[in-house]
Design brief:
Largest sheet of chain B: none
Helix content of chain B: over 70%
CATH class of the largest domain in chain A: Mainly Alpha
Strand content of chain A: under 5%
Helix content of chain A: over 70%
CATH class of chain B: Mainly Alpha
CATH superfamily of chain B: MetI-like
Chains: A mainly alpha (332), B mainly alpha (264), C alpha/beta (357)
Strand content of chain B: under 5%
Shape of chain A: flat
Number of helices of chain B: 10
Order of helices and strands of chain B: HHHHHHHHHH
Largest interface: A-B, 92 and 85 residues
Oligomer: heterotrimer
Number of helices of chain A: 13
Radius of gyration of chain B: 22 Å
Structural class of chain A: mainly alpha
Number of strands of chain A: 2
CATH architecture of the largest domain in chain A: Orthogonal Bundle
Structural class of chain B: mainly alpha
CATH superfamily of the largest domain in chain A: MetI-like
Shape of chain B: globular
CATH topology of chain B: MetI-like fold
CATH topology of the largest domain in chain A: MetI-like fold
Strand order of the largest sheet of chain A: 1-2
CATH architecture of chain B: Orthogonal Bundle
Chain lengths: 332, 264, 357
């Protein structure tokens, strides 16, 4: 092709060849088509996510223009008067997720340490599988179980006790109904435990065994050795926790069925609350009026951005730990 | 002491699982009958069944698989076999992002781009929403499985003069086929429990339907509607429907587990 | 290798089937007509009964009614994602204006919004004055044994329990009727909360649909809520007596709801959008309401349009007999309103031609 020719077909052929070569190092036509096809599929998925951001942003423009940053700080959610503030939903989302983490993190650490460091393989494998199965149960089933088993149980046996013991704090006051932030947080805790514990297990397994041996050689007890391992895996464990947080923030059905669906910022954990995802689930098909709908889509956009950041950060942390040994993060 | 504590944590989690499963079985078995599985819903007090919801869920899963599996596997192939450098890193990042997007947000998106233009809630929009949930899961498992295929296999085939597309389709993919298949099954199990993205796409129906441009019933939406209702009869049906759904999902998980005996 | 082949075959099969579906199964091609409706949960029990009865008479017409709430009914008919909407609260003027075409309100039945509660140890129905209801839902009355409730119910022993209010979480015609009533009887309510399909509730738990609210009340002790009468009756929940304008405590019933509608028949406007809450008659139940089906005056698809008009026509005539069944405690439309609804249905056209004659 270095020699200039005037034959048109050869010029076309030359362009073809270079096109093929950019796509495929060997210049094989089949390869070029194959590689182009796969590239298009990959770019299609990228385009989808971009379209998602675009659609969410344009559809929430009306609310963004009208309320600006006030949307994030106002507690007033009043569709009749056309006032929309997201703070109650943000508060409910964050609080229910925090309750979930407070319960789930120690539990998950315990599970991971038990399965990786202590239990013999013939116990660790089947039991580990059972814990993972918790993640396979659909959200709506947790909701169903929550309504008929968990909520009555908490109302009758747990919440009265908490109210008696800690009623002097603002956290456990108000009517005891079994429905509210507390119940929502507990169901979330059950749902994120298998996710957090699975990632922590990967992280612990990725901590080089030389670390354990070194600690043992220095005369450390079993427990001190585990502490060394935990400290070593700390960034990865943090990643696992944040990954669980990302999952909890976006959980919809079970929480919707148990949290009480009321846009209010209340200090009491017994009080009903509302999450962003629940608000969308409940109100999206019924929102009359463009501004109302736009406000709901803006809630969706906020949820999208928050989970995006949280998940990205978590993946970065987990990846940093597991890549050292080539372990594969089973990030759910 | 320490071991007791960690063991307690583990058995608490396992205990909750068993408690939930036992309760579902206990409440669900009572209303389960062949008639219940094939009948469609009726007004309260007149019985009825979940046949249309089972059919609806199957149609939605078939649609989601038809759309989600090829795309997901394609992305996985791209990431493992073709893409490199910044572009591949970008695609991988976006795919991971898609994994983390709450499914309710996916539902809002599909409502905006499919339901509104079509002017109809539809099975198609539900299938698309589920496919969106499926794609990143399938893509990442495919990539991981392909990465496990030894390089020598690819090099050997290439050295024999085979072009890359034949190597990928004829050698690499087959070598990873069982892994990809189990990944696909797990993805199907995962989306079969999804409710949130169906609320304003597939919507729901009280009839048998397999029309793609019409609203369609699904087990999960039915369970949700019946769970929050006040009728004892519907509660009993919700438990039975749950038993069917959970048996399906856990069944897939356990079968995959037995087939692969994945290490951890 | 064979696993791989088989999985490719299976994948190809699934794709082919799905494509087959896509090409062959779009829209029913047969004579059958499928209508999709969505909206109010208030009339859902009777609508499901109608649909099921009507299907037996007309097996070729399939009607799918989803109770998602009146707000949803209004929204989805405006978006044209459904063939008909349903709402208890008449649409507001601005909603009608922003709809893509002219919408008609066809009243179908009358119903009552009742105050129901879950209170163990109280066997006779409780009585409520309007201001007591307002105060409970404003959060000013917090305990069941509040002197104001006791004053309405001499001789009843009320527990010292906290009151838990349950309200709707989504936009609802039942909420609109209830708050319309409260705004008429309580200036404070009118000023602080106002009326509409989705007010900002001062207290309480949110439940989705009349179903969700009733479910919440049934499962949670010491709750109080407002639901359509059918939901309370069919779930064996107590129903409060409400003091009407004339000062009598009235239980919701076919008769008391009919009485509430009777006095406004003459003054009902041309488009049939009317509120009948807080009626003056001494036998009138004060929180009564019509419930409406919303249809476009111009129907795009003639066969669907005909099926829809025929169904609604059947509903406001033969369907009214269902109200005799105590499982469906609604009240039939007054004859005068049926006549006017007929005129509305007769005005529905498709392609410029009237559908029903």
């Amino acid at each position: 092709m270095s020699v200039a020719r005037t034959d048109e077909s050869l010029v076309v052929a030359g362009k073809w060849a270079s096109w093929r070569h950019t796509l495929s190092p060997t210049g094989n036509l089949g390869d070029a088509i194959f590689r182009l096809l796969m590239l298009l599929v990959a770019l299609f998925v990228v385009a989808l996510v971009i379209a998602m951001v675009f659609a969410l942003s344009t559809d929430s423009m009306l609310a963004i223009r009208r309320f600006g940053f006030r949307f994030l700080t106002s507690t007033n959610w009043n569709p009749i008067k056309g006032e929309f503030g997201a703070l109650p939903f943000i508060y409910g989302t964050v609080m229910s997720s925090l309750i979930a983490l407070v319960i789930s993190v120690p539990l998950s650490l315990g599970i991971a340490v038990f399965l990786v460091e202590q239990a013999p393989p013939f116990i660790a494998r089947p039991i580990g599988f059972l814990v993972e199965l918790l993640a396979a149960i659909p959200s709506v089933v947790y909701g169903l179980w929550g309504i008929f088993v968990l909520a009555p149980f908490l109302r009758v046996y747990v919440e009265p006790v908490l109210a008696r013991l800690f009623g002097w704090t603002p956290l456990f006051t108000g009517p005891i109904t079994g429905i509210g932030l507390f119940t929502g947080g507990i169901i979330l805790a059950i749902m994120v435990t298998p996710i957090i514990s699975a990632v922590v297990r990967d992280v612990l397994a990725a901590v080089p065994s030389t670390q354990r041996e070194a600690a043992l050689a220095l005369g450390a007890t079993k427990w001190e050795t585990i502490r060394v391992v935990l400290v070593n895996g700390a960034p990865g464990i943090a990643g696992a926790v944040i990954l669980g947080l990302g999952r909890a923030l976006g959980e919809t059905m079970a929480v919707t069925m148990l949290i009480g669906n009321r846009p209010e910022v209340s200090l009491s954990l017994f009080a009903p609350s509302y999450t962003i995802a629940s608000a969308i689930a409940n109100e999206f098909t019924e929102a009359t009026g463009d501004l109302y709908l736009s406000a709901l889509v803006e809630l969706g956009l906020i949820l999208f951005l928050v989970t995006f950041i949280v998940n990205g950060f978590a993946r970065f942390l987990v990846w940093n730990v597991t890549r050292r040994t080539g372990g594969v993060g089973r990030a759910a | 002491m320490m071991t007791t504590l960690t063991a307690l944590c583990t058995f608490a989690a396992v205990g909750i699982l068993l408690l939930i499963l036992a309760y579902i079985s206990w409440r669900g078995v009572g209303s389960l009958s062949f008639r219940f599985l094939i009948d469609s819903p009726r007004p309260v007090g007149e019985g009825g069944g979940i046949g249309n919801a089972i059919l609806g869920s199957l149609v939605l899963l078939a649609l989601a698989s038809a759309l989600g599996l090829p795309i997901g596997i394609g992305v996985g192939v791209y990431l493992s076999e073709i893409g490199s450098g910044r572009l591949a890193a970008g695609v991988r990042f976006i795919t991971d992002t898609l994994t983390g997007i709450p499914s309710i947000v996916t539902g809002v998106f599909v409502y905006a781009i499919v339901v509104l233009p079509m002017k109809h809630f539809s099975a198609l929009s539900g299938g698309i929403a589920l496919a969106l949930v499926m794609i990143p899961i399938v893509a990442r498992t495919t990539e991981e499985m392909l990465n496990l295929v030894p390089h020598s296999l690819r090099e050997g085939a290439l050295a024999l003069g085979a072009p890359q597309w034949r190597v990928t389709l004829g050698v690499v993919l087959p070598a990873a086929a069982s892994g990809i298949a189990t990944g696909a099954m797990l993805a199907i199990a995962r989306v079969s429990g999804e409710t949130a993205p169906l609320l304003f796409t597939a919507f729901g129906s009280r009839f048998f339907s397999y029309y793609l441009d019409q609203p369609i019933a699904s087990l999960t939406v039915l369970i949700y509607n019946y769970a929050i209702s006040p009728y004892d009869e519907w509660h009993a049906q919700a438990w039975a429907a749950t038993l069917v759904l959970v048996t399906l999902i856990l069944g897939i998980n356990i079968v995959v587990r037995i087939l692969t005996r994945r290490r951890f | 290798m064979s696993v791989y082949r088989r999985s490719i075959q299976v994948a190809a099969l699934i794709t082919a089937l799905a494509l087959l579906f896509a090409f062959s199964a779009c829209s029913p091609k047969t004579q059958n007509v499928a209508l999709v409706g969505a909206g109010a949960t208030f009339p859902n029990p009777i609508y499901q009964k109608w649909v099921s009865d009507y299907q037996k008479l007309h097996p070729d017409v399939k009607i799918d009614y989803q109770s998602i709430g009146s707000g949803g009914g209004i929204k989805q008919i405006k978006e044209q994602t459904v063939d008909f909407g349903a709402s208890d609260a008449p649409m507001k003027d601005e909603d009608l204006k922003s709809a893509p075409a002219e919408l008609l309100h066809i009243p179908t039945v009358l119903g009552a919004v009742v105050v129901t509660y879950n209170l163990s140890g109280v066997n006779q129905p409780l009585r409520f004055s309007p201001d007591v209801i307002a105060d409970i839902f404003l959060g000013k009355i917090k305990k069941w044994n509040d002197p104001k409730i006791v004053a309405d119910n001499p001789g009843v022993t009320l527990p010292a329990a906290d009151i838990t209010v349950v309200h709707r979480s989504e936009s609802s015609g039942t909420s609109a009727v209830f708050t319309d009533y409260l705004s008429k009887v309580s200036p404070e309510w009118k000023e602080k909360v106002g009326s509409g399909v989705q007010p900002s509730w001062p207290v309480g738990l949110g439940g989705k649909g009349n179903e969700g609210v009733t479910g919440q009340v049934k499962s949670t002790p010491n709750t109080i809520a407002y639901v359509e009468l059918a939901y309370a009756v069919n779930n064996k929940l107590p129903v409060g007596l409400i003091k009407n304008q004339a000062g009598a405590f009235i239980a919701p019933s076919l008769e008391s709801v009919t009485a509430a509608a009777a006095e406004s028949i003459a003054t009902t406007p041309e488009d049939l959008r009317v509120s009948i809450t807080n009626a003056a008659g001494k036998d009138a139940y004060p929180i009564s309401s019509y419930t409406y089906i919303l249809v476009y005056k111009q129907q795009k698809d003639p066969s669907k349009g005909k099926a829809l008009v025929d169904f609604v026509w059947w509903g406001i005539h033969d369907g009214q007999a269902v109200t005799k069944d105590p499982t469906y405690p609604y009240a039939p439309l007054p004859q005068e309103i049926v006549k006017r609804a007929e005129n509305k249905l007769n005005s529905v056209t498709s392609g410029g031609k009237p559908i029903h004659s």
